[in-house]
Amino acid sequence: xxxxxxxxxxxxxxxxxxxxxxxxxxxxxxxxxxxNKETHRCLRCHGGSFTRDIPSPLVxxxxxxxxxxxxxxxxxxxxxxxxxMKDRQGGWFVTGTKSKNRGNLVYQETERGADQGRIFDMxxxxxxxYPGEGSDRVALLILEHQSELHRLLAHLSLQTQTALYSxxxxxxxxxxxxxxxxxxxxxxxSVGDKVLRYMFFKDEAELPCISLKYSPYAQYFNGNGxxxxxxxxxxxxxxxxxxxxxxxxxxxxxxxxxxxxDEALEYLTAELAAILNPDSNYEGYNHxxxxxxxxIRQILEETTELL
Length: 307
Fold this sequence. Notes:
By secondary structure, the chain is of the alpha+beta class. Helices cover 33% and strands 11% of the residues.
């Protein structure tokens, strides 16, 4: 959900097993809210080249001027958990951190783009009633991670449905009876592998040490998911070097993941078992230690039906 202070409506996105992600606005007030399904207005950004034609949320880091407007000729960065920290959070208020990033900076436009930027004076916005005293950086990091995975899961769902539809048409023409054609398998694999690499935090950018003590969101989120018999959870935060204690994404429990087509889930499940085999080195997953594999495997075995 999103809301701009002073705005008169809420913006909502919800994952869908058939269409990827849907976008809504909620207007009105009191006891008469109005839910509107958005199409072109939202999909101009959330369904075009910015999201590689997959309807999905996205997080951007920009170079804002003193009025909060992006200086577009200075460029923009689409952010996920692989984005270097120095390139993140431009245009966002960020508190509780001393690490170098674009957060809290404003810029002046130059001939080639933007200058080096300066720290924005927070006293300039005292006339705006924000609901909190600060900006929770842990929540922002989770958002940056999760938005891209929503895109990938939507892509896998849509790709699988398209491949199965095409196969049915060819099966009718050619009289084939195989459950999945080689073409369908390749199409599922091409996106399924991207989903798995992302869920295993392949190429995650190194994080500075971030204290969880002063983060209300961290207190809510940390360990708040299903736990194995040893009390370990995919929701356990580390926020030092890497985001999570155990590098596999908690969104395995989400409707967006669980509602994937059966054929996609079958592929992911088989690959998960191979990747998490502690006695083999699965190509492309050298960042996982033997201990990582054992712990993640036990958590998944005890909290899901995947393994």
